[in-house]
Amino acid sequence: MRQIMTGNEAIARGAWEAGCRVAAAYPGTPSSEILENIAGYDEIDSEWSTNEKVALEVASGASIAGARSLAAMKHVGLNVAADPFFTMSYIGASGGLVVVTADDPGLFSSQNEQDNRWYALHAKTPMLEPSDSQECLDFIKDAFDISERFDAPVLFRVTTRICHSKSVVELGVREDVPVKPYERDPAKRVMTPAAAKARRYILEEREKKLREFSNECSYNKIEWAASRKVGVIASGIGYQHAREAFETEDFSYLKLGFTYPLPDELIRRFAEGVEKIYVVEENEPYIETFVKSLGIACEGRSLLPAVDELNAGIIQSAVLGREAKSGPSAGVLPPPRPPVLCPGCSHRGVFYTLSKEKDIVVSSDIGCYTLGVAPPLSVTDSVICMGASVSAGIGYFKAFSSAQKDAREEKPEKQKKPPKIFSVIGDSTFFHSGVTGLIDAVINKSESALLILDNRTTAMTGHQENPGTGFTIKGDATVRINLRDLCAACGVRPENVRTVDSYDISAVTQAVRDAKASREFFVIIAEQPCALIKDVVRRRAGLRCEVDRDKCIGCKACVKAGCPALSPNDGKVEIDSAMCNGCMICAEICPTGAISRVGEFDE
Amino acid sequence: MSNDKLERAGKAQKRGNILLVGVGGQGTILASKVLSEGLMRAGCDVKMSEIHGMSQRGGSVSTHVKFGPVVYSPIIDEGRADILVSFEKVEAARWLTYLRPGGMLVVNDYEIRPLSVLTGAAQYPEDVIGKLKDVVPNLLAFDAGAIAARLGSVKAQNIVLLGALVKCMGLDDIDWRTVLKDIVPSKTYELNVRAFEAGAEKI
Known about the structure:
Chain A has about 600 residues and is an alpha/beta fold. In chain A, about 35% of the residues lie in helices and about 20% in strands. In chain A, the strands form 6 sheets. A 7-stranded mixed beta sheet of chain A has the order 3-2-4-5-7-6-12, sandwiched between helices. In chain A, strands 15-14-16-17-19-18 form a 6-stranded parallel beta sheet, sandwiched between helices. In chain A, strands 9-11-10-13 form a 4-stranded mixed beta sheet, sandwiched between helices.
């Protein structure tokens, strides 16, 4: 049967066909839909894990216990999971273990553009790189076999354009692979230094065998052209772009699908058959560096850009010198349209409140609320990685305190209070890795404050369940971790934990003021579910805010909250009733009481 | 060869690059999904590329659909789109450089002012459609939102535009009703069929 599928859907389907039994992930664009789709197959025990490290450890344990297992994550997720990843390379796999890394060339939805192919080289694990959805399905099926055959986790490397492009796929059937009988093997799996050292030698032997496999396997293949002048070496999406760019050229290809270890003999054979070689790859010169290490001349990064994703046009102009013909220009300057917080977003009121506070520093985190940095809210001083809001806040406090100490000694008369640090984090990100920072803050007596934006979902990546929602990936009811209790258990004094309604600006403001005054670690939990959750949309569908044009003085104070539903018109403000969900933030801000809510909740 | 196969081979000769652009939340992805499914069923190789995640939050979005006997890269380069379908006026201007010379522009005469305009940091340009007409002879502009609203919901504007697009591309011999039936939620099926037909009538 043929179906049109995204790469992520094909990976899920392929894992199911391969007899995968256990799958775990933490959501992250562009990888999130892999587990969402896997959860649809009842034969696979799937879970949203608290973070990527946990996901890979769950999959690792399942592999050791004999089940075919998979962990999926975005590229930066593998940084979080790097610790088990490197050591699982030593321990190896009983049931096939596949780690999917979804890289993001072009940074469509990420904080960096790291190329995770280096992880395979660094951890010495075999790596597969599919170039379309059919290969996602075919390769992942084989990935479990390769993992078992070579006793190694397989890194399955995809990119945004593979994950989120659809192409036609021929489906197969599920192979039922039983869980292997469990056999205890401490020498292989208890990584004491002595045991790990013994495994370290085995890794070197394994690598030789893997390189032989790389030279012979069907994933790496030469496609000879009639004229043997120019050869192109490419993998993943780079291969597809190259084929389109050189459609009218008589070029030969070495298409690489198994990219660690790279096939030295095959590359040599290809080089002997052509006069000139181009390497087409996005971001890092991963293949090119290896080809050159074989003493083979080639061109890649000297022609193609290191930054951003490639396309056929870029490759054509770089290699063939054929200038890209861009289309017409309408001679109008389109106003910028970056992503914004949605109408009714529960984060808006909190960021509006923070925007009004003086002498604060905001250490924020990864999620929709990163958008609080955009005008007109313009709140946020730094965002590093998942969970860093809390721990970086501790560092801010230490540095400011240290500077204040100097100032006190030098000019005691000009003492100024250092800014108060607010660490801002979403519920899912807090469970992911903010909670460790919280414990650190409490025991090390940080006087920073933590604002947990609890919108009851993992919003940015498309509304996945998290430990605070009370549901599993399959939608089954489960324990709901209570944030207030968790903070108290981490040592925050109960009177220093304040729960507020995110839509209630005066309550949020009071809590922020109290946090500022506190000399102890202070936590504010701002609650209101994401406005896009289906049930929230249904409940609030009949609500909207309206402007009394007689009372509106056109001061635009409400517009400063940055809601896309509000627009100034003829000296007054109008509210788009289709966008508005009646959150009342604008009404609370309005100095003349011109905005009121109409309609009823649908309970 | 049977008639069916001949017909399929004929369609497989078809090729094209379609770029759908708009504002996150306007339904470009669903329209592209229906389009790609229909093209696949007609025997074409199809690739569609879309962007998820952060850009969906009210940002400028694009979906690429390419079809033909064999499609390699899933993305359309600048100057290579046979048809640009813009779900919002100013987005047409933003993405216009992707249109090939002689290509066709279908634009929804519908304005969504970005936050930069709402806060006064930027201006929404005047007479966008007029300026587009000056540089693109092959242009169709109409208010798909109004048509969809008249049929029952402004949300169906994506399928109105799809109806127009399919007619423009000469792909109206594909059984779109069945494709719609298989893809859109059943309670919106009737509305979407009416929206599709209303769009096709604009050509």
